[in-house]
Amino acid sequence: MKIEMHAESKTYPIYLERGILKKAKEYIGRSGKVFLISDDGVPEQWRNLLQKQYPSASMYVFKNGEASKNFDTLQDILKAMQKAHVSRKDSVIALGGGVVGDMAGFASAIYMRGIPYINIPTTSLSQIDSSIGGKTAIDFNGVKNCVGAFWQPDMVLVDPEVLTTLTPRHFHNGLAEAVKEGLIKDEKLFEIFERDDYADHIDEIIARCLNIKKNVVEHDEKETGERKLLNFGHTYGHGLESYFGMDGYYHGECVGLGMLKILNNKEIKDRLVKVLERLQLPVTCEYDADAVFQLMMNDKKADHDHISIVQVDEIGNGYVEDWSNEKIRERL
Length: 332
Fold this sequence. Notes:
Blueprint: E1 2-6, E2 11-16, H1 24-28, E3 34-39, H2 44-53, E4 58-62, H3 71-83, E5 91-96, H4 98-110, E6 117-121, H5 124-130, E7 135-140, E8 143-150, E9 155-158, H6 168-185, H7 187-192, H8 202-219, H9 234-243, H10 251-262, H11 266-278, H12 289-296, E10 302-303, E11 306-314, E12 317-324, H13 325-331
Helix pairs in contact: 3-4, 5-6, 5-8, 6-8, 6-10, 9-10, 9-12
């Protein structure tokens, strides 16, 4: 399946195909040098599969985990790119999950004022959500994604076969983003997760999510309006993620908890709890409300005395509204 992203800043193809990693070079077809970026959480078999197609390319592999999304890792990547003599005519290929995509994308955005990059997501979270749309960022001073840039990839290759090496927790973590997209834009997508055979529909789930995000980004690349819908659950989610030290609870797990904090509709909330439990995702956790609230005040969606949040009163129809800081604190 080929999906075309027509963002304001760039048009690029997104290919969804089982086994596409084996023939990535055929699709990428770059004439210049490529520089490969991955992390040690990506199974060696997938890194080797890409490296064999580019035997002369340098591959920089950093330590897996949200804790690596910082200036130190970014600086090490840039140094490695310099050492490999990467020029403005060359390209970066990212192979990994959301952290790899963020690091490779941000490095590409600022190296020599911007060079092309290709994204090959290897986790359910990155295939469903973060690999397209052009958001790249690092965490700074304990706050998630607060330093970054919008930098669209030149191409995205999505291979569902690489998901077979994920642990159940990582696999389900990414599905939380698909649940979110179903709640805000696609009732049928949400209903897939209410059935026991949801895992058998992973290709359809990914395709639906990619099309949802593509349509939103095409209307609002820089998140000034409709794209804010994709942040459903993320205001509380990012606060919890930062509070638990980024790796205590995974991103999708915190997004699920964040959605539960926001929902007003009891019927939808009850259905969401059942879905999250089916996906083996947490529905409650212990935390210091004051500490989480302070972290949320640093959220990029905060605007002094209020924060834009996403609400869902009818599945498939999310909308944005402003909550006062007092109301945000009450929900904690």
